[in-house]
Amino acid sequence: MIVAVGVNTDGRREVLGMDVGPFEAETFWTAFLRKLARRGLRGVKLVISDAHEGTGSPSARARSTKSV
């Protein structure tokens, strides 16, 4: 299980999303991060995770994806 937590403008933490799946897989991370972007996540300044194999490239790609 993975959980994305963000900090709002008031400094309070909020759960942005969660999912269950093969969290070592790059395809899983890519889909998860794109889902957050489609739901309106913008302005990401920092991504922190354990040293999972699949987190590097997907976070860079998801941050560069633009929604119309």
Automatic annotation (TrEMBL):
A GO term for molecular function: DNA binding
Keyword field: DNA recombination, DNA-binding, Transposable element, Transposition
Gene Ontology BP terms: DNA transposition
Pfam family, one: Transposase_mut
Keyword DNA-binding (UniProt): yes
Top-level taxon: Bacteria
InterPro entries the record matches: Transposase_mutator
Signal peptide limits: none
The keyword Metal-binding belongs to this UniProt entry's keyword annotation: no
Function, in words: Required for the transposition of the insertion element.
Family statement: Belongs to the transposase mutator family.
The name this protein goes by in its record: Mutator family transposase
